[in-house]
Structure formats: C-alpha cells, structure tokens
Design a protein that fits this description.
The chain has 213 residues and is mainly alpha-helical. The model has no long low-confidence stretch (mean pLDDT 83). The chain starts with a helix and ends with a helix. It has a single domain, classed as Methane Monooxygenase Hydroxylase, Chain G, domain 1 (Up-down Bundle), CATH 1.20.58. Helix 2 runs antiparallel to helix 4, helix 2 runs parallel beside helix 5 and helix 4 packs antiparallel against helix 5. The protein is built from six helices and no strands.
Length: 213
C-alpha cells in the first residue's frame, strides 16, 4: 500500500492526491482479490463438473472431497463478503468526497475520483456475480452429497430386499413342526437351500432389469 501511494512521486503530495492514490490502491487490491476468488471458483467448478470419474476416486473418497469443497466454498464466500463490506465503505467515502470536496480537489482529481466510483460500482456487480456462483456451486455440492447418500440408501435397500426372502424361507423350515412334509424328505435340505438361493437371485435379476444397480 505504501509503495502504491508513493509510486512515481517526484515531490510532495497534496492531501487530495494522497487520498486518491489510497482509494485507487484499495480498489486495485480488491479487484485482484476478486480475480483470485474467481480463479478458485473456476477450479472448483471444473473439478465438480468436468473431472473424469477415475480422477474423482483417485486420492480421497467422494465424501472427503465434498467436505473439502464445502469448506473451500465457505472460505471463498467469506472472502467475497469481506471485500463487499470494504467496497461499500470505499464507495460511501468516495461519494461523500465527490459531493463535498469540490473546494479541495481540482478538476483532474475530481475526474479520477469519479473513475474510482465507477470502478467500485463495477466491482460491486462482479461481487454479486461471484456470490451467485458461490451459491450455485454450494447447491451443486449439496446435490452431489444427496446423490451419494441416495446411492448408499439404495444399496442398503437392495441388500435388505434380497435378504428378506431367504430369511423367510429359513424361518419357515426352521419351525420344526411335527407335520411338515419336507422334514423327512431326503432332498428337503438341498431343496430348501436351492429355494433360498433362487428367492435371493430373483430380486437381483429384477433390480438389474429395472437398471437400479
């Protein structure tokens, strides 16, 4: 900041010149910070929507990557919010000086101050764009988490549905009532095992036919 204020200085600076250089340096720094946030958001967006599945499973699990993405989005959102608050203060200061500092600023400095106000207004628009992008990526990340959770629930549902018929058959033939025709049948045990196997495979075939797995 100090170097930016004194850059190209060949003599003593007036109060108006110092004020304008500080304003311009702060606006430039805010613009650089927003560009950095935009680059980070572009990287997260490319990683979320354009990465190959093999690359997504390479280093860490999906859940760990989603948690890291949520943390990164939160940090970027906080940074953009802080820049917005700073620019709001700078805009109010510039507006006040532009309206009341006509006796302090000359015509050239007044035009520079108007340019600073225009830059602040454009940065505010850019901040709104980045905030919308942060919200979009946040919604997309939460959607990926919901999809991942749905896949887990679907797997557990398939396992439970496949396991119910064999358990039911084993429960029926495990009651050991006196009058059970298959109890004294020589092939009763293999028949029960085959029946349990078929009853477990049929739901799998049906799920495969419906493309649920």
């Amino acid at each position: 900041m100090f170097e930016a204020v004194h850059a190209g200085c060949k003599g003593p600076l007036t109060a108006g010149e110092i004020f304008l250089r500080i304003q311009e340096a702060l606006v430039d720094r805010a613009a650089d910070a927003l560009e950095h946030c935009s680059a980070e958001l572009d990287e997260l967006s490319h990683r979320a929507f354009h990465s190959e599945p093999a690359q997504q499973h390479a280093a860490k699990s999906i859940s760990e990557k989603l948690r890291a993405t949520l943390r990164k989005l939160g940090q970027i959102g906080d940074h953009v919010s802080q820049i917005r608050d700073t620019q709001l203060g700078l805009g109010r200061i510039a507006a006040f000086v532009c309206e009341t500092g006509t006796t302090v600023l000359n015509a050239d400095e007044h035009s520079r101050l108007k340019a600073v106000r225009a830059d602040i207004a454009s940065l505010n628009d850019y901040q709104q764009h980045l905030s919308g992008k942060v919200q979009f990526l946040l919604d997309a990340t939460l959607g990926f988490i919901s999809i991942d959770q749905n896949d887990v629930v679907k797997t557990l549902t398939i396992v439970s549905v496949v396991g119910v018929p064999p358990v039911l058959i084993a429960g029926i033939y495990g009651m050991n009532f006196t009058h059970m025709p298959e109890l004294h049948w020589a092939f009763g045990y293999p028949f029960a095992l085959l029946l349990m196997l078929v009853s477990g495979l049929l739901p799998l075939v049906w799920f495969k036919w419906r493309r649920w797995m």
